[in-house]
Amino acid sequence: MILKSPTVGICISDHVQSIPESLKGIKVRDFVNGSGTLDKIGSIQPPNGSLTVDADIFMMDRVDLKAFMWLLKHDRLLTNHNKSRRGFSATTCNLCGHANESTLHVFRECPRALEVWVNKVPSKMHHEFFNLDLEGWIKLNINGSTKKDGGWSSYWAMASLEMDNKVVGRTKEVRLIKWIPPSLSIVKFNVNGACIEGVDASCGGLVRDDEGCWMRGFAKHVGICSSYMAELWGLLEGLMFV
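^ that's the sequence the OP posted. Answer follows.
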């Protein structure tokens, strides 16, 4: 069976938005060369001459940045807000105590995040930068439109990744803590508090002499609260204990 060249074709302007004026009346068949392969369709520029946010993310060099930015764009990072939706945590921000640790709170609205952005973002951009929704905020920064000089999108992505490591990822630092005995004939009282986020918290304390021998102590169930509040409960109970 011999296929003849079509006399009609699909008009691109009926299916694609924001194409150049010179190409609005052109048909798909006009992009096929004599060998039957596509010739020019790749030359059509995306709307407004810029790539989509997903495409910009894909073009990043570092794999960890690609993965992080994809999770950020789709609101899949394990903030306390997102963990609470799965029943794993309370929504409270552990850094500032705000009632809802959402993605925008972690990366833009928390006082720790504000310290990073307020002096870096030009004042004329503050209203837009600090009021866009998550998708618009990411698009603004990843397209580099916040600053005229190059490199803003990379700086913003790296700074956001650092925030993720410190807040969402809760990068752990292991430190050895040695108990220091008090002076001769003096007793020392230590208190502590700990919690499993969104599940339970407790506090406790003990009194030891100058040789480290246990004298007396206490333990108390606190309930659901942050680790910071558990520490405060330990301090309060310790003061009442002595």
